[in-house]
Design brief:
With about 400 residues, the chain is an alpha/beta fold. The protein has helices at about 10-25, 40-45, 60-70, 85-95, 110-115, 130-140, 160-170, 215-225, 240-250, 270-280, 280-285, 330-345, 360-365, 365-375, and strands at about 1-5, 30-35, 50-55, 75, 95-100, 120, 145-155, 180-185, 185-190, 195-200, 205-210, 230-240, 260-265, 265-270, 290-300, 305-315, 355-360, 380-385. The protein has 14 helices and 18 strands.
């Protein structure tokens, strides 16, 4: 089988591609990216005869479709704002697909994927992705589910890549309609920094305040558990304290609206200017603590007992004690490896029920299959269950 790694030169997708090199039996792994200057760097990083590099401009739809044809699956590492375009290409090309974000732009292509007998799973990294597997692992042990609270801490620099800066401004857009909670059968829109809650993450991260974010888990978990009586779904997240201080200030001062201002005869978005500064500064490209931490609480009933399942994940330290997990790679590998695992499960025919079309993660994979693969990479899911 052949895999087309769209956006494969990016920091996260190259880690996913490295995982394909180490753990998959794909006969060809093509890194497809608009950054042609990165070709030699990527080929040296992956160092495998199955890997080649192909310049691709996702904005050129017909050319991208033509280049995708003949591949079995597309591993899409492009940014949120590109996912509509990338999914349109893979659907027309007749490929399976997985991306990292799952914000809903993909749904319109569901009929085309079904028609061609292909599967596309939008949003499979750490969060969304592994978080939904954690939710379903707990929910499958319960007769009914009352509430689900998904939380995560992403410990990385504010602006180590343009797509990450873009993600930040997107998620904290004051007018974003997708920032919702599911409550008593309805999706309720909330503003940035809504519903703060102290979440205890494993060391070295500790307890931090987290706020509602516009990730797809709220929508997908509500759909997946609608027959188990689900009444509340909340998805929260946080970054390093310094990052959160900056985002809060940008929000409070209206800078995240990215209004245009005139500077020396040029009209520029004020947030674009700040993003450019952060991309080129020590403060924007370094942080004290690197890595990722997931935390999921599922409350429900088993028989006549009310139970709470708490799941969290751990990974190799970023302090250099484990080769390959140093500093930023402790973040990028956490996100990239699950993307690779999802691609490999599709290639192995391990999609639940042999389904096709656009699938939310909960409909696509057995949690145990994902957890087993994570464990092989030194990433572990932990669970505690208490009567409440």
């Amino acid at each position: 089988m052949r895999v087309f790694c769209l956006g494969g030169a990016g920091r996260i997708c190259r880690e996913a591609a490295l995982d394909l090199v180490r753990f998959s039996d794909f006969e060809k792994i093509t890194i497809a990216d608009s950054n042609a200057a990165a070709e030699q760097e990527i080929l040296k990083f992956l160092d495998d005869p199955r890997v080649d590099f192909l310049p691709v401009d996702i904005n050129n739809h017909q050319d991208t479709v033509a280049r995708m044809r003949g591949y079995d699956i597309v591993m899409d590492g492009t940014a949120i704002t590109m996912n509509g375009k990338s999914t349109a290409c893979m659907a027309e090309a007749g490929c399976h697909g997985v991306n990292l974000n799952g914000f809903g732009e993909e749904d319109q292509y569901a009929p085309l994927f079904r028609e061609k007998g292909k599967v596309c799973v939008p949003g499979f990294g750490m969060t969304p992705g592994v978080t939904q597997m954690m939710v379903m692992f707990a929910a499958n042990q319960l007769d009914t589910v009352e509430s689900v609270r998904v939380s995560h801490g992403a410990f990385r620099p504010f602006a180590f890549s343009r797509s990450i800066t873009e993600t930040t401004t997107y998620e904290y857009d004051p007018d974003l309609p997708g920032r919702v909670v599911f409550e008593e059968g309805k999706f309720v829109q909330v503003p940035p920094f809504a519903r703060p809650r102290e979440i205890e993450l494993p060391q070295p991260y500790g307890t931090l305040p987290q706020y509602i974010i516009p990730h797809s888990e709220t929508r997908t978990v509500a759909e997946a558990l609608k027959n188990k009586g689900i009444r509340l779904v909340e998805t929260r997240g946080t970054w390093p304290r310094k990052n959160m201080q900056l985002v809060r200030a940008l929000y409070d001062w209206g800078i995240l609206r990215n209004e245009r201002v005139a500077i020396n005869g040029l009209e520029l978005g004020v947030m674009d200017c700040i993003g450019e500064y952060l991309m080129n500064s020590k403060e924007g490209t370094e942080t004290e603590l690197y890595g990722y931490a997931l935390h999921v609480e599922v409350t429900g009933r088993k028989g006549n007992k009310r139970k709470q399942h708490v799941l969290y994940h751990t990974h190799p330290a970023s302090d250099g004690s484990v080769p390959g997990w140093e500093k930023l790679r402790a973040y990028t590998r956490n996100v990239g490896i699950p993307l690779s695992i999802a691609v490999q499960l599709i290639a192995q025919g391990k999609v639940l029920g042999g389904r096709v079309g656009i699938l939310i993660p909960e409909q696509a994979f057995r949690p145990e299959d994902v957890f087993d693969q994570l464990q092989k990479r030194g990433m572990h899911i932990h669970e505690t269950v208490t009567d409440i």
